[in-house]
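Internal ticket - ligand job 378, pyridoxal-5'-phosphate:
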Amino acid sequence: MAPASPTGLGGRLSIDLGALQRNWRALDKVSTGALTGAVVKADAYGTGLVAACRALYAAGARFFFAATPDEAVTVRATLPDAHVFVLDGLFPGAARLYVGERLMPVINSLPMLEEWLEACLSRNEALPAAFHFDTGMNRLGFRLNEASIVKRLIEQIGYQPQMIMSHLACADQPSHEKNRTQLALFSALLQQFPNIPASLANSAGLMTGREKHFQMVRPGIALYGGRAVAGRRNPMSQVVTLEMPILQMREARTGETVGYGASQTLTRDSRLAVVGIGYADGFLRSLSASNARLGGRVAIGGRIVPVVGRVSMDMVVVDVTDLADQPPRPGQMVEILGRTLGVDDQADAAGTIGYEMLTNLRLARATRSYFGAEGLGG
Ligand SMILES: *Cc1c(COP(=O)(O)O)cnc(C)c1O
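stdout (structure tokens):
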């Protein structure tokens, strides 16, 4: 990937691949008895697909879940002997591609199943695939009442899927009743497909009870340091650090306003730093502040300071009046995500989830660097 800041004057996005590896190993320990996969969709949650795949493989991961065929092809090119699932399923007419690239579609519907079984028949080969049944998301997957048709179609030709899976809607809220309902529906479904490995848990499912582990777990967000389970301390290591430079310092007086819409009036004489990150970099506009509402925060030298006024396309203004003992200066880097402010601190302030903060990293006009990986060789 071309550096987003060829001059080196833009921001810095640092990805700690050692933390990614520690996170995978920690989750693998929790899921003893089940295989631990790795969900790498959306550019490995914004951290970089190729680098993340290499690091995860070196840590021991062998089962990778991409969303799209494009992502899956990249995983395959990076890891010749990994098992690669395509969560979005089999795209119409794409069976040849999947077979050629040794991708396993997650079969989500009867039309997908028919097309895959035809490919098996025409090649006289039981091409591996996972079957996904919907147990309460109403997103992808067979309806449960299609199980008997699925069974009949595969029995006709003596086909067996590699895995039966479903996906939890509320795993981040462990006491939500829907978890029990989905688990019960999934367990009942498995009676109809005996001796086929099963998979139900995302990160939160994996972290909240062995009964959801079955034979394979599919963590995503927790690998990348995000909070999987609401209202609990997040035990994962932070993977991402994003720093962006201060463009200008300025003094402003009580009663003056800051930014578009004049949404915030200063209530004291203030020292402001203009930071070179805006909504075009994934610093969401919902991190804007006003007199009525606290917005996002950033950290300078390990100290947290608030956003003032609206987030612009390329800039945000922060109040550094309280840093008078160590006045920030133009060019100095400001921590947007990192040790002081985690992904979820920023996400909470923006009214969103860590997943969205992370996948927005792709937008940041910053130079990426990777460090910390073990066992990559070369
Ligand atoms: C994204 C996804 C996961 C991973 O979920 P996390 O909450 O990020 O752990 C697992 N399974 C499926 C089907 C997914 O779409």
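Auto-summary: Residues 39, 41, 87, 167, 202-204, 218-222, 228 surround pyridoxal-5'-phosphate (CB under 6 Å). The chain is about 30% helix and 20% strand.
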